[in-house]
User: Which sequence fits this backbone?
């Protein structure tokens, strides 16, 4: 079989696993297990903690000691075991510990899947720039299909979502045995843990513009965690209103949420033009505006005809909010930072967004949800408006503090 098809299968399952539970586990914990918003936030914070350390550690092991495809298999075996066990857990502290172990195994597999793809394409003399994007898009497809499957099977409030994710993780561990061997190069000069975490790039903090950029990377990383954690519980809570109990939004909320991932694909295609034409400052401001609209439309949305329109608009602007920050930020680093520390700077960017930002976003957003809850009933419009105000304030501060002068003739920014 063509190596590209084999990699498509790998990436499809890689993100299918995540799609089974990432956006629906919060609803399961809140509605079925009766966890508080703070408890749900703490469980989701495990992803941020794991993202700070584990990709760097696993990356070093894959570079020097254990072939990436074998390490990938081991990680997914751990993921399968923890997901199966998590399906039986009803205590928030135990759930946090189990999902922490899962995150420590799963988060590195994202980077490992990319490494395996690049190495395999190279072994078959295929250009990665040309061939990787159409391969990687199958990961997004897998995520979307997983969301649809969990929703159509009505597993969003059931532990079955974890069983399906665990089963797929086990299958992927076995499948990884069929992938090309990725040799280790023990004598190779590889970046250490400090570099992979971005510590070499700390010298960038001598530049005020980079201080502002990385600070807002952290603050926007917190925003991303909010919708991953509480988007699904919000839609499920419409079931409390008898008028909406039988609506499609309540019955199949993940179908609606999957529009966000579909929008991502579209906005990715716009990034090269927008970034080249307007520059990173404008692109990041557009991202912050999109986040404000995302939460503002949530506040106005409900399963009624007009309310549904606002919910759909919220899903569409998510693509801009996510892509225009995460992907454009990565490109900005690639084009701006000295070549000798680009890898470290990318590591620092990931640590700020998916590590520190995700951790604090999960913790603090959970407390906001609890603060605006009375007897278990959440004032979602107010909650979303608080988050919208947060991103609106960020955009104003960013506008006046990020002093970057774009030259339109520049290649990317």
Assistant:
């Amino acid at each position: 079989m063509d190596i590209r098809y084999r990699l498509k299968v790998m990436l499809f399952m890689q993100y299918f696993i995540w799609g089974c539970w990432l956006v629906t586990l919060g609803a399961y914990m809140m509605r079925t297990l009766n966890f508080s918003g703070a408890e749900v936030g703490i469980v989701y914070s495990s992803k941020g903690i794991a993202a700070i350390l584990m990709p760097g550690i696993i990356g070093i092991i894959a570079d020097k000691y254990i072939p990436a495809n074998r390490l990938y298999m081991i990680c997914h075996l751990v993921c399968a075991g923890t997901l199966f066990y998590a399906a039986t857990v009803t205590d928030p502290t135990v759930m946090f510990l189990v999902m922490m172990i899962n995150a420590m195994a799963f988060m590195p597999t994202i980077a490992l899947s990319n490494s395996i793809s690049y190495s395999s394409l190279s072994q078959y003399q295929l250009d990665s720039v040309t061939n990787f994007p159409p391969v990687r898009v199958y990961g997004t497809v897998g995520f979307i299909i997983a969301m649809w499957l969990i929703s159509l099977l009505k597993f969003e409030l059931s532990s079955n979502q974890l069983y399906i994710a665990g089963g797929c993780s086990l299958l992927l561990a076995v499948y990884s045995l069929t992938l090309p061997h990725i040799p280790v190069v023990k004598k190779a000069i590889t970046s250490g843990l400090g570099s992979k975490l971005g510590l070499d790039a700390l010298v960038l903090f001598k530049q005020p513009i980079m201080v502002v950029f990385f600070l807002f990377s952290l603050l926007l990383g917190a925003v991303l965690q909010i919708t991953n954690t509480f988007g699904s519980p919000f839609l499920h809570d419409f079931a409390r209103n008898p008028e909406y109990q039988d609506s499609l939004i309540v019955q199949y909320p993940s179908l609606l949420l999957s529009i966000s991932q579909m929008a991502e694909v579209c906005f990715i295609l716009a990034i090269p033009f927008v970034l080249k034409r307007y520059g990173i400052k404008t692109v990041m401001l557009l991202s912050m505006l999109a986040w404000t609209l995302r939460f503002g439309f949530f506040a106005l949305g409900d399963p009624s005809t007009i309310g549904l329109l606002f919910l759909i608009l919220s899903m569409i602007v998510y693509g801009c909010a996510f892509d225009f920050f995460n992907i454009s930020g990565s490109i900005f680093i690639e084009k701006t930072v000295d070549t000798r520390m680009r890898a470290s700077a990318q590591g620092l960017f990931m640590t700020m967004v998916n590590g520190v930002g995700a951790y604090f976003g999960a913790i603090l957003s959970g407390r906001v949800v609890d603060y605006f809850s009375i007897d278990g009933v959440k004032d979602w419009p107010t909650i979303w408006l608080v988050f919208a105000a947060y991103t609106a304030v960020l955009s104003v501060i960013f506008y006046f503090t990020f002093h970057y002068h774009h030259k339109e003739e520049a290649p990317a920014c």
Observations:
- The chain has a mean pLDDT of 87.
- The two ends are 40 Å apart (CA to CA).
